Amino acid sequence: DETEFRNFIVWLEDQKIRHYKIEDRGNLRNIHSDDWPKSFEKYMKDVNCPFKMQERQETVDWLLGLAVRLEYGDNADKYKDSTPDGAKNTDNTAKNAEPLINLDVNNPDFKAGVMALANLLQIQRHDDYLVMLKVSFTERLTQDAIAKANQSKEGLPVALEKHILGFDTGDAVINEAAQILRLLHIEELRELQTKINEAIVAVQAIIADPKTDHRLGKVGR
């Protein structure tokens, strides 16, 4: 329902996100105005939402994730020692060994993170976020890439803070992942360029040693 959706956005801004000052929320609160979509679009840009206004489900998930992060930031001492009711009786050793066992796939932060990663890797969207996560980490890796990753290589440590990403996803973890992916991509491009150069040299070695007869104006025996 459009009215409920608009009320929901206003509630999130008023109660949790609070990006605007109170006196600047008038246009967003005027949910019956014909200009509300423009006000909402501006609001999305102001909070750096990576999705378009037409992508309503993704936008809702992202805004909820933002609200959760801000709520936690305002009450970190209250929430830092909290554990889910269903996880209170779990074996801590097993939990530490398998950190993904208790992953909450319905968590807004998880959904927003998977969606952002899928956008970065240009993965087709799917209703199941776990499917998108699986595609991101498996089908994007070719057999050559897996074999290459298994090879032990020594290199110099890279200071990520010295490499400018060029865009901001709104999440520090996703930004760092994007920086790593970009550096890996650059390394692959350099290797490709090296192979291209080797191919050019090989071709030149073949065509640069013919028998030339200037009297006939042609190349050959």
TrEMBL record:
Family note: Belongs to the RTRAF family.
Designated gene of the protein: Rtraf
One family name in Pfam for this protein: RLL
Protein known as: RNA transcription, translation and transport factor protein
